[in-house]
Write a structure and sequence with these properties.
The protein is mainly beta and about 450 residues long. The protein has 3 domains: about 80 residues, Immunoglobulins (Immunoglobulin-like, Sandwich), CATH 2.60.40.10; about 170 residues, Lipocalin (Beta Barrel); about 130 residues, Jelly Rolls (Sandwich). The chain contains 2 helices and 30 strands. An 8-stranded antiparallel beta barrel has the order 8-11-12-16-17-18-19-20. It has a 5-stranded antiparallel sheet with strand order 21-24-29-26-27, with no helix packed on it. A 5-stranded antiparallel sheet has the order 22-23-30-25-28, with no helix packed on it. A hairpin with a 2-residue loop joins strand 14 and strand 15. The N and C termini lie far apart (about 100 Å).
Length: about 450
């Protein structure tokens, strides 16, 4: 019995070993080869300062650092070089086996300032027609200048649902003394800390001599220099290369541009320690007058707005522009003398807004109406009302333009809306990036 038992156990062990030997460990395959990163490049036919780069293996994921503060993706990608000089371009390719990088130097012979005319560059830096740089600071006197919400965003959109700072909420910390300088020259970025920054408590271990202050941490930190870049796609992302950063530091240096205008920049960014959170920060130019919570323009108006007796000041975002002009489209339901002209920017969310003296009372008259002249039928206009002191409080409706090249009146119903909304926001051409020009008149409540 004992021998039979031992024989049975030995046989079972051999079967077990045999079974183990048949299970080969999984392999990821070979990583990219040197040939996979041997990229080529050539100037485009339309401009010698726009270079087209080609990766040799279309089956690999390809990412580019153009050496000028911008990046790209894809087997074929283009880099723009407004300024003459020598640039180091790096291609990195990826597959299941790993990654490989290679760099080459290219030389640009002459300046081409026209390539600096990207509307986003102009808004961020002031443009080549101005000083060539712009200093931004935290919009500390306005509510919701800092906040946190869910990641991914809920149906409410990119807003700080969980918590939004009150005005001057973080006074006495290192947050409000920082200056963020964006320059067109070589796409330089300067983070002027004035000796102190404000960081998430989970980042405290990475900052020597940090100490708790108002729920998170202040940390001594020297001024930093680096580069900035903008990557345009489904989301428009502002990237900081170097040790500088923007606003309350959570361990990341990539920021989704939620909105951008001449006098306002709102950013959304993630939390390196908690992937379920997204943070928000709102910036204004350092020479922009503080509005003590009013938001946007310091001028306010009342409805109706007909552009006849005054030129109300609107704020634009997403690359849009506007002007109050003579009515060159007079006819039909609109023969007024003056109208608003606006050209859609290069973002799907581009538009403009006006701030009112008092919140709108929707208890009786629930409609916001306006006249519009559009070059296209079937374009959408999104109408949004929001609380300028707390922009996470808003309501919005979409309405479709039914006729092209003639004046029509559009109305949206805000029945039941709270009496806190003192800003009217219009997004003509919502959801597109087409640079169409629209005309608007007679914004009213009915």
């Amino acid at each position: 019995m004992k021998l039979n038992y031992l024989f049975t156990m030995a046989a079972a062990g051999m079967m077990f070993l045999s079974s183990c030997e048949k299970e080969e460990p999984p392999t990821l395959g070979s990583g990219p080869s040197e040939a996979d990163v041997a990229f080529t490049y050539a100037a485009t036919t339309e401009n010698a300062n726009i270079i087209e780069f080609t990766a040799p293996n279309a089956s690999l994921v390809a990412k580019w650092d153009f050496g000028n503060g911008t990046t790209g993706e894809g087997t074929v990608a283009r880099g723009s070089y407004p300024l003459k000089g020598t640039y180091t371009v790096t291609l990195t390719v990826f597959n299941s086996g790993g990654s490989r990088s290679a760099s080459k130097e290219i030389t640009i012979a002459e300046d081409d300032p026209t390539l600096l005319s990207n509307p986003l560059f102009t808004l961020l830096t002031g443009g080549s027609a101005g000083k060539g740089y712009k200093n931004w600071v935290i919009d500390s006197t306005r509510a919701a200048h800092m906040g946190v919400g869910p990641n991914p965003s809920s149906a409410a959109g990119d807003v700080p649902e969980y918590w939004a700072a009150a005005r001057l909420d973080k006074a006495g910390t290192g947050l409000y003394s920082d200056i963020y300088k964006f320059s067109l020259d070589a796409f330089n970025f300067d983070h002027i800390t004035n000796g102190m920054v404000y960081i998430d408590n989970e980042q405290a271990a990475n900052f020597p001599d940090s100490y708790e202050n108002k729920g998170d941490f202040d940390a001594p930190y020297d001024n930093q220099t680096g580069k900035w870049s903008i990557v345009e796609g489904a989301d428009t992302v502002l990237k900081i290369d170097g040790k500088g950063f923007l606003g309350f530091f959570t361990g990341v240096r990539e920021y989704k541009i939620v909105s951008i205008g001449e006098n306002e920049l709102t950013l959304r960014y993630l939390d390196a320690s908690n992937p379920d959170l997204a943070w928000y920060i709102r910036l204004v130019p350092d020479d922009y007058p503080v509005d003590n919570g009013g938001g946007g323009s310091t001028d306010t108006y009342t409805l109706p707005i007909d552009f006849e007796s005054e030129d109300p000041k609107f704020e634009v975002f997403g690359g849009s522009s506007y002007a109050i002009v003579d009515n060159s489209k007079s006819g039909g339901i609109n023969t007024s003398n003056r109208i608003l002209e606006t050209t859609h920017g290069n973002e799907t969310w581009a538009g403009l807004y006006v701030t009112l003296k008092e919140p709108i009372d929707f208890s009786q008259n629930t409609m916001i109406s306006f006249k519009v002249w559009s070059p296209n039928a079937n374009d959408t206009v999104r109408v949004k009302i929001e609380n300028s002191a707390k922009t996470s409080e808003f309501a919005e409706r979409d309405v479709v333009i039914t006729k092209a090249n003639e004046w029509i009146e559009l109305s949206v119903d805000f029945a039941g809306a709270a009496t806190v909304f003192d800003r009217v926001v219009l997004f003509p051409g919502w959801g597109t990036t087409n640079p169409e020009t629209y005309f608007i008149d007679d914004i009213s409540q009915k």
